[in-house]
Design a protein that fits this description.
Blueprint: E1 2-7, E2 16-19, H1 27-40, E3 45-46, E4 54-62, E5 67-75, E6 78-83, H2 89-104, E7 110-116, E8 121-128, E9 131-137
Antiparallel strand pairs: 1-4, 2-6, 3-4, 4-5, 5-6, 7-8, 8-9
């Protein structure tokens, strides 16, 4: 059994990539973000840059008071989990439990508009009444 707590300390943003949570680009990434909002409210960091859209810092504690601090972020390769420490089996189990908790959570209503500034693409995504959506408008960078 694990407990989860969002931390508001920007000094903890420095974790490096640890694992992918298995979230597909599109509606699934909207649901994942909506579920994060349900569990942890707004992220500690967010921008309109799709390559760096948001970051959460989440502390995971087990029943033995072992503790891990993960970052959950949406970066250029999609949704990912970061960790700044030794990646042992206990850490993997804690990350997996966190991912499962997020995936099982009903998403909050939200809408975000983010851009791939390099390409001019505009993404509007979110959830409304548990139904998530994702719309990407291609920019004209490739066509000029």
């Amino acid at each position: 059994m694990y407990k989860y707590l969002a931390l508001n300390d920007q000094n903890l943003l420095g974790g490096s990539f640890f694992t992918y949570p298995g979230v597909e680009y599109g509606k699934e990434s909207a649901k994942f973000r909506g579920s994060l909002i349900t569990l942890f409210a707004e992220p500690i960091y967010k921008t309109d840059n799709a390559s760096n859209a948001y970051t959460y810092v989440i502390q995971v504690k087990d029943n033995n008071q072992n503790s891990w601090i993960f970052t959950i972020y949406e970066g250029p390769s999609g949704t990912a989990i970061g960790y700044n420490g030794k990646g042992d089996k206990e850490t993997e189990r804690a990350a997996e439990a966190l991912i499962n908790e997020i995936k099982m959570t009903i998403p909050s209503d939200f809408e975000e508009v983010v851009f791939y500034h390099d390409f001019g693409n505009k993404i509007t995504y979110g959830c409304s009444n548990g139904v998530c959506y994702f719309n990407e408008e291609l920019g004209d960078t490739y066509f000029n």
